[in-house]
Amino acid sequence: MNSRGAASLLKDSIPLSDVSAAGLFEGHDLLRRGFTSVKNELLPSHPLELTEKNFQLNQDKTNFATLRNIQGIHAPLKLQMEFRAVKQVQRLPFLHSSNMAMDILRGNDECIGFEDILNDPSQSEVMGEPHMMMEHKLGLL
Questions:
Q1: What is the DSSP string of 28-79?
Q2: pLDDT for the residue numbered 84
């Protein structure tokens, strides 16, 4: 037995990371986390899946390396600062945003892609209650 007694054994048996504000037996919140699926927790099913998920990140890294080689270290740093500034400006969480400034910085403003045709906000399934979404974003819930 532990030298601290039986009370410390009970306290040590439940990791604090599993305890939330609502308690140990909190149900799964479908509004914020979506449906649970074992498929989402598995490894990628195809070797190219990870490459496709990280395509934009890899393309940005390649563009930054090219800029650094051609124009010097200041060019990618300036572009990264502009990316961070554009990412900070957002609409309210329940309103659709096209992120036009990000498209302009990446040079995608003149390209028509899959997401331009099939990303209609009126057919979106993520529209929720505006008050609840704002309270969640501000940390009131």
A1: P-HHHH----HHHHSPPSSTTHHHHHTHHHHHHHHHHHHHHHHH-THHHHHH
A2: 93
